[in-house]
Amino acid sequence: MPATRRSPTRQSAPRRTGEPRKPVVPASLADAQQDLEPEAALHALGFSGSDLSGREAEAVELAQCRFRGADLSGSVLAQLTMTDCLVQTSNWANVRSDGGALRRVIFEESRMTGFAVTDGKLGDVTFAQCRLDLSGWRFTGFDNVHFTGCNLTGADFTNADLRGARFTGCDLTGAQFHHATMDGARFRRCELDGIAGITSWRGAIVHPDDLLALSYTLAGGLGIKVDPED
Question: Which residue range(s) make up the domain with 115?
Answer without folding.
Answer: 60-221
